[in-house]
Amino acid sequence: MEQRELTGRHVAIIFVAGFGVIIAVNLWLAFSAISTFPGLEVKNSYVASQEFDDRREAQESLGWTVNARAMGGLVILSITDQQGAPVQVAALDAVLGRATHVKDDIAPNFQFDGTAYVAPVELGDGNWNIRMTAKSQDGIEFKQRVILHVKR
């Protein structure tokens, strides 16, 4: 068998091919990150930071606890007060989606059944988030991201 000589041209081709793969992967990852970024959370972070403590204190004064679970084609969002009693809110706005991207986001139609808010939604396995905003009967805004793990 004849042994081939490793020339400068071969080394240059290996070098260019190796860095070409690295650059291509980096460009693909950067494009994927940008295309799945949902956008800004707030328009002006300075103003939001100035109001944060007041909103947090008002929200904590409600003493609500929020839990979510999925079963039998339903998503159940429980809001309870300090005594564990169900809370019926004046308004509820919720977006259900994956933690990593916004393309699967939906706004379920939650209805209060006397104990919790229920919406018919079929979810695949994995980590889901419910980004909810509720308003108490006396007008206090309550915002929370509720993590929902679905495993069948």
The proportion of residues forming helix, as a percent range, comes to 25-40%
Share of residues in strands: 25-35%
Radius of gyration: 25 Å
Uncertain segments of ≥5 residues (pLDDT<50)? none
Helical run tally: 2
Shape: elongated
**Element string (H = helix, E = strand):** HHEEEEEEE
Describe this structure in words.
The chain is of the alpha+beta class. Helix content is 31%, strand content 32%. It contains two helices and seven strands, in the order ααβββββββ. The chain has helices at 8-36, 45-62; strands spanning 65-71, 74-80, 91-98, 111-112, 117-120, 126-135, 141-150. The strands form two sheets. It has a four-stranded antiparallel sheet with strand order 1-2-5-4, with no helix packed on it. A three-stranded antiparallel sheet has the order 3-6-7. A hairpin with a 4-residue loop joins strand 4 (111-112) and strand 5 (117-120). The radius of gyration is 25 Å and the shape is elongated. The termini are far apart.
